[in-house]
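Lecture 7 notes: from sequence to structure.

We start with a single chain of 455 residues. Read the sequence below before looking at the structure.
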Amino acid sequence: MRTHLGVAILIMTALCAEATRAQSNATATDIDAYLQPYVRSGNFAGDVLVEKAGKVVFEKAYGLADRERQISNTPATRFHIASMSMQFTAAAVLRLVDRGAIKLDDHVGDIVPGLPGADKITVRHLLTERSGLPDINALPDYNQILQHHQTPESLVAQIKGQPLLFEPGTKFLHEEHSAYNVLALIVEKKTNLPFAAAVERLVFRPAGLSESGVDDDSEAHALYVASGYEPEGTFGLKPATSIYWSGKSGNASVFTTASDEARWVAASFQGHLLSAASRDAILDTSQKVGYGWFKSENPRFSETAYYMNGRAPGFASFVLYLPRARMTVVVLSNIYSSATTTIGYDVAALSLGLPYEPFRFRDPAPTPAELKTCAGHFQFGADFYQPNAQVALIASDRELSLRWPTGELSPLIPVSPDDFVDRSYWEDVVVKRDSSGKPSALVYDRFEGKSTGPK
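Now the structure, written as tokens:
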């Protein structure tokens, strides 16, 4: 009887293992099929990784790391991760806090004198992006700043003498790039090391992140990093504008691989790199932004989601951590497109058996005559991304573009006759028509602008 029972158990175990493998393979096949339209339309090239309960259940690289030399992306390819870099700057500061070299409630003026409001701003305010500092990215000459080698000190000098935007600690207004420039300078002052070397010693090496680094414009840090590209027209790509990544020290200068980023998530939330108090500060959801993470209840996953995304010239990134599902999703791309965020959420949903909406672009493309019927000008309200903006839909040959008040053009990817996706910001765009078939309104994301005529 025991022999028969033992055989039955072995058979059942084998069948269950086969079922698990089949489910895993089915999920991997589904994820790959989901990603293909993004790859074919030129909106994603990079690496996608899904980890559950500490095990990688999906990882695949797509597209080219270097289009000029036809070098493919692989899981070993390193990508600039833009604003996701804030996680590592925050961790370096928290490591110094754990060592007693600095306190979260220390005033910035005691470390970096001369900043606006330095006697009111604390290290905690910087980490939670509630400092009120003027934003370096909003300076009129910011693009010129990126065309020269910088240091944290030279970046911080750019905002000295300017007034605060609001009283420190009172609110989160927007991503505070300047706050993380200041944090990078604090790390340098407290370690007596250049920022790149300090983060290597405080974070990358202890966490075992051998493929990660802070780009300080040195040749060594440029090895094996993908080249960056940006959209050109509806489906084309071109090399992104070259920048000095030191111009983003502290807020967007890190490069890494998908596997290193997943390892980093585990070290941050489950490991012993940080003290319990520092880890609790990251996990705290009483403030929705802080320490390089957004933190909020996500009804799609029925749990708290920790996530971050980033875009910088030629690159886009997204990371999602769901503690109850024990899942990490990493999406790194060397194409400047916000599609990475949509991809990350959908891949997580797909992996958990939840609903998701695949991306399908219109093929064959609409004719020039069809696109011409969409052209017009539209007035949005004060609550729009650019308050009271008048935008225009412009049809040119086989492409439709949205022109912003600044003159910037966003190519629109056709999905159906009146439905499009803004390729630059990856938002849904819908043309509404009146009874005669003329455009009456333009829906952009959740906002609606009224037609003001063809002009």
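The chain is about 30% helix and 25% strand. Keep this in mind for problem set 3.
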